[in-house]
Each structure stands twice: as structure tokens, then as C-alpha cells.
Amino acid sequence: MAIPAAAVVVPLGLLFLLSGLVVNLFQAFFFILVRPFSKNAYRRINRVLAELLWLELVWLIDWWANVKVHLYADLETYQMMGKEHALAMCNHRSDIDWLVGWVLAQRSGCLGSCLAVMKKSSKMLPVIGWSMWFSEYLFLERSWAKDESTLKSGLQRLQDYPLPFWLALFVEGTRFTQAKLLAAQEYATSTGLPVPRNVLIPRTKGFVSAVSHMRSFVPAIYDVTVAIPKDSPQPTMIRLLKGQPSVVHVHFKRHLMKDMPESDDAVAQWCRDIFVAKDALLDKHIADNTFGEENFRDTGRPLKSLAVVICWSCLLILGVLKFLQWTSLLSSWKGIAFSTVSLGIVTVLMHTFIQFSRSDRSTPAKVAPSKAKNRGEQDANQKKQH
């Protein structure tokens, strides 16, 4: 990590980690003392606590880096956002798609009840992963044999969720990169599927399971498409921390759950068809650099995240000063060494967060068939032609 970057990352990291640990402690307290007696009361309390932490990351986008998140949606979709349970099916375009989702959830009034299906290792991340666990995020191992029952039980737990929630599902199974696109194109060519240009091939088992178990209590599916304009740099976590702006375009389209096909195979095909349409929509976005100005919705830049960060900063600065005054920590070499080690730990943790978010370090979805199988299929096709 370069020195200028570290100079920014360390103070922001201190703010996030210290405030996050406070939030985690309160989450644990209410999880132990309230949840056993009233799960819904705990959920309402946790929603407020989670927002106090996650609004810091919304502030990072809105006010620190000044990233512009442009929402495109028809009027019906826009009016229902945040007012109902919804399964959000997203493409995974950038390192910060999940943060962009939090920004739009905050605009819609459901940030504290915004959920997602994440890889299992995410819950081990200090502060943010722990907060997600307390908030009932679903964590999978990317092995369907292990994940099927975990996903089913996690979805069933949401049946009595007392507040409108979004459950985000990245059905591509991994973040988009050119290398993964080439692998997806090779796989599509070998199996007779439509060859993607801007998305990866969806892994439909999780989506089919979600639809199957959420039909009775989730009224809508949001088809969410994320795109980066041609004249905007790709947003990354390190760019956010450095305060470097970007622009992200997000298209929302609402589908009624009651209109979904009944059979699992038909639901899987519906998902694949949506991604073919999503690919075409992204082609149009590349050509026009917009999802259509007639569907643009100005969501503004709410002051709430700025107010929360100011409050956290004042509280923590006051607390640290009182602690230093009480302990005289910086008056001895041991105290200085302890402070230096603490700052080093913060730097390492923030570096871990940044590396964890990078798309080039994410694990690709295992969808490609073996070469032997490909050759067998090609030989069979050639025999049929002759």
C-alpha cells in the first residue's frame, strides 16, 4: 500500500473499526438477551444498529469519494422500492456492487434490512462480516451439496421478517472479469448456449431454490443491472478510500413472483433468458452510455450518512482523548509501542478488506466442462453432420 493511500486508509480505518466494534458489541448484547424471547424485536433493533455502521460506507460513496449512483427504473418499480420484500437478482460488474446496492437501499428506506447471499469466508471479516452475520445474511460455501440445505433453512427463516427487505443474489457466482468472460464464452460455445458479451453465465440452482422457497411471502423479483459508463473509471475500494470519484448506472426492473413459472426447469430457463436480455441491455448501454433518460430517477444525496459519520467521529475522538488522558499511554515507550502496533493492525485489516473486495482475486465459478467432454460433443456433432 502506497504511503499516500495509507495516510488516508488508517484514519478512516480507525473510524470504521472502532465504531464497528461498538456496534458489534451492541448486536451481540441484543442477540443474547432479546432474540431468544422475541426474534422480531431483535430484528427491529438490529436494523437500527446495522444502519449506524453501514451508513459509514454509504458516506464513503456519497460524500468522501463523491461517486454518482444513477438509478434507472420505470415508475411502478421505483414506487415499490423499499415498500415490499424483494429478491434482487444482480449482475456482478464491479468490486463495489454490494455497496452500490446499500446506497440504493438507503435511498429506499431499507438499508438496515438489506440482505445478501455471500460466500462463507465473508462472515469471518472483522466488524463488517460479524455485522452481516448478526443481520441474518446467508453464507454459502459454493458447493451445492453443502449449500442446498443451508440456503433452504436461511430462506425459510425470513418468512416472518417484520420489515421490507431486499435479498441480493449474484447468480453469476463470481465477479466479472475479462478472463472469466472468455471462459464463459468458451463454455457457451461448447454447450450451445447463447454466447455472452457483457455478463457471465448464471448459475441457476441457487436462484431456483430461492424462488421455490420465497414464493409464498416475497411478492417481487428485482432484475438489477449494473453498468459503468465509458467515460468513468472503474470504481474500486481503494479508489473510494482515496476519495476518487466514479459513476455507476443501475437499472431496476420489477417482476411479479406470482408470474414466475411453476417448475424448477422453467424457472432456471427464465433466469437464463433474463441474463440474455440483460446482456442485450448492456449492449445498448455501451452504445448510448445510458439506460434511457426517460427512466432516470433522481435519488439525491441524503444527509443522514454525513450526520452519522460526524457523530461517530466526535464520539470516538472524545473517547480516545479521554482514554489517552486517563492512561497516559503516550508518555512511555511501552505505550508508544502499543499505539504503533495498534495502528499497524488497523492498516493490515484495511488492506485485507481491500484485497477481499478485488474482482481479480475472487474465485471463478466452476462451470466449464472438461476438455474431454467438449471433444466428445464436437465429435458427435460432426458425425451427425456427415
UniProtKB/TrEMBL annotation:
Ranges for domain Phospholipid/glycerol acyltransferase: 86-208
Family listed: Belongs to the 1-acyl-sn-glycerol-3-phosphate acyltransferase family.
GO cellular component assignments: endomembrane system
Molecular function via GO: 1-acylglycerol-3-phosphate O-acyltransferase activity
Top-rank EC class of the record's enzyme: transferase
Lineage: Eukaryota, Viridiplantae, Streptophyta, Embryophyta, Tracheophyta
Disordered as annotated region, ranges: 361-386
Record EC number: 2.3.1.51
Keyword Transferase: yes
Superkingdom, natural source: Eukaryota
Signal sequence extent: none
CDD domains named in the record: LPLAT_LCLAT1-like
Keywords, comma-separated and alphabetical: Acyltransferase, Membrane, Transferase, Transmembrane, Transmembrane helix
Compositionally biased residues, Basic and acidic residues: 374-386
The protein's name in its UniProt record: 1-acylglycerol-3-phosphate O-acyltransferase
Membrane-traversing stretches: 6-33, 306-324, 336-356
Catalysis: reaction(s): a 1-acyl-sn-glycero-3-phosphate + an acyl-CoA = a 1,2-diacyl-sn-glycero-3-phosphate + CoA
Pathway the protein contributes to: Lipid metabolism; Phospholipid metabolism; CDP-diacylglycerol biosynthesis; CDP-diacylglycerol from sn-glycerol 3-phosphate: step 2/3
Database matches in InterPro entries: Acyltransf_C, Plipid/glycerol_acylTrfase
